[in-house]
Design brief:
The protein is built from 17 helices and 18 strands. It has a domain of 209 residues: FAD/NAD(P)-binding domain (3-Layer(bba) Sandwich), CATH 3.50.50. The strands form four sheets. Strands 1, 2, 9, 10, 11, 12 and 18 form a seven-stranded mixed sheet that branches. The chain is of the alpha/beta class.
Length: 529
Amino acid sequence: MPDVDAIVIGAGHNGLTAGTMLARDGLKILCLEKTNWPGGMASTKELFKGYKHSVGAWAMIVLHQEMIDLLDVEKHGFKTIVPDTSYVVYGEPEDQPFVAYNDPITMANKIAEDHGPDAMRGLFDLFQYLRIYGKIADQERLKAPESIDKLIAEAPDAETREALQRLCYASAMDIIRQFFPDPNKHRTIQGSLAAMSIDGTHMGPYTPGGATSMAFHYTASDAMNVFKLPEGGIGALSEALVRALEAESGEVRYKAQVKRLLIEDGKAVGVELRSGEKITAKVVLSSIDANTTFLKLVGEEHLPFPFTEKVKEIDYRNGYIQVHMTLKEEPEFTGHLAFTNENKMKWLMAYIPSADHVSKCWNEYKNGQIPTDPLAYCYFPSMIDPTVAPPGYHTATLFSHYFPYDTPKDKLREHAGIMADRAIEQFAKYCPNFKDSIVDKLVLTHHYFKTTFGITGGDFSHGLLHPGQMWDSRPVKGASDYRTPIGNLYMCGSACHPGPGVTCVPGYNSARAVMAELAAADSDLVAAQ
């Protein structure tokens, strides 16, 4: 008799989602987490006493209300904050900053007012174009995906087929230029679009295939991204999911690192921990990436040769830095950004002067260089969520793409510090009190996330958002239905369809696949009796 019905490896939001769904179905669930906190690469930590920082992911951009309701996390204390604006993207003083408003009517009016009617039409037409992709993505979201090429071939008309083909295989700039043909106009809008499109890739905005990431990012939440913050930091979602799981008699065990899966006759029968303890189960679900799951925890000796080679080809090259800071006073922007001091607009500022600037940073990065003038996002969550900092003080987190992913270990601290200083300077030149207000600072790179969470390359996407790594090729061809070549072993994390982001969808879909298979097995057993 197995010790539990299901073991879930990893207490991130997807693992906890899968565990909660299975516990509600009456299964005895044990979730094993190698750290001593929930959330994985979307957790809240007190890095500095009295302050809460979101480590890894930080915003609820793609978490649908449908999933919040399905998981009933609001009953367990989960709350979201929706500010009036999502972000302010800026460049040089001569470039009009791009402000994204969360209300679509306000957004349209402000774009026309700040950038002109041609910019408003360009964005509207671009978002309508992206919705061609979004429509089929939404149809495939809560299920194992079809082949994208099959979906393109089955499109109702030639115009739709051509659009889908471009949105999967063209570069991001091919799409952007279709609606913003002049590279010298609306530079901050084009820069914002380009930067979102290279997130989670090893690509620049002109790299063929980058449109896949663009379409993914801009349709996961219906084209116009709305940035929502969870009250108390990003880990609040996983903390609520822990309470939801425990309410169904499930258990989360911390500091329980899995050493290997126990395989008998081609089937997973449990796990062995680093401590030497063995725990058996009817099924095992892994919320970590495919490389770690199959090549480290399962072992090549248990897997078919073609499958292991596919897993080895997954691209995880994703270099970045995240800088967590505490501030003794509120930052005050000046000059062409002084308007952001009103109505808390400055809660999220982004230095992305143009699409070509994104490309310049990419070219430096792919040559192993630290970008001279790195792209940078800096947000101040305490401005809209006072629970994360003491009264009168603030938290700040900066994120910057394109930190060289293969930086030698002995140079990590030095090079990360250089890039952090350069990124901080992008804000300090228009915010004179920013640098002097910094009390504490911690610079994390993708290497930290690799070491702390055991994720290959520290890649927050669990496999980059490239055309050959999406849809029915996620994590690899032949294993996109959450099942694996190992019987009773399932994948349930961001390595699966539909991909990364705080969505809970991979965990939800995987749990449904497990429940369907267990129900079928029970039916077969009853029939045999």
